[in-house]
Amino acid sequence: MKRGLHGTYVTVGPFHLFRYIGEQAFRYNNRKDMSDADRFSLAVSQIIGKRLTYAEVTGKVGETPF
After folding, report:
1. How far, in Å, CA of 5 to CA of 17, rounded?
2. How does pLDDT run across 8-51, given as a tens digit for each residue?
3. 62: alpha, beta or left, given left = phi > 0 and alpha = psi -120 to 50?
4. Which residue, 33, 51, 55, is CA-closest to 42?
5. What is the DSSP secondary-structure string of the chain?
6. Radius of gyration of the chain (CA)
7. Which residues, including other chains, have CB under 8 Å from residue 39's CB and lie 6 or more apart?
8. Lower CB density within 10 Å: C or N end of the chain?
9. What is the rounded CA–CA span in Å between residue 40 and residue 19?
């Protein structure tokens, strides 16, 4: 976990920490008997039909623009 966070990402904000942990957990849980292409296909198949907006990522859901 530490190597992934310090080696791959420059900074990790506390607001997004659970997303980074989720990614690392996914990689760890799917590390055996899978190539990178297989892991990518699995990840893509799990996001079909889901939508993540910029406002949700930045925590600005429900705010009114100025």
Report:
1. 10
2. 777 777 877 888 888 888 888 878 888 888 888 888 888 888 88
3. left
4. 33
5. -HHHHHHH-S---GGGHHHHHHHHHHHHHT-TT--HHHHHHHHHHHHTT----HHHHHT-TTPPP-
6. 15
7. 27, 30
8. C
9. 17
Higher-pLDDT residue of 32 and 61 is: 32
The more confidently predicted of residues 65 and 27 is 27
HEC secondary structure over 33-51? CCCHHHHHHHHHHHHCCCC
- Which residue pairs from 50-58 have beta carbons closer than 8 angstroms and sit at least 24 positions apart in sequence? 57/16
The first and second tokens of residue 22, run together, are 């989720």
In this prediction the pTM is 0.51
33 phi, psi to nearest 5 deg: 60, 25
Record the tokens describing residue 1, joined without a space.
């976990």
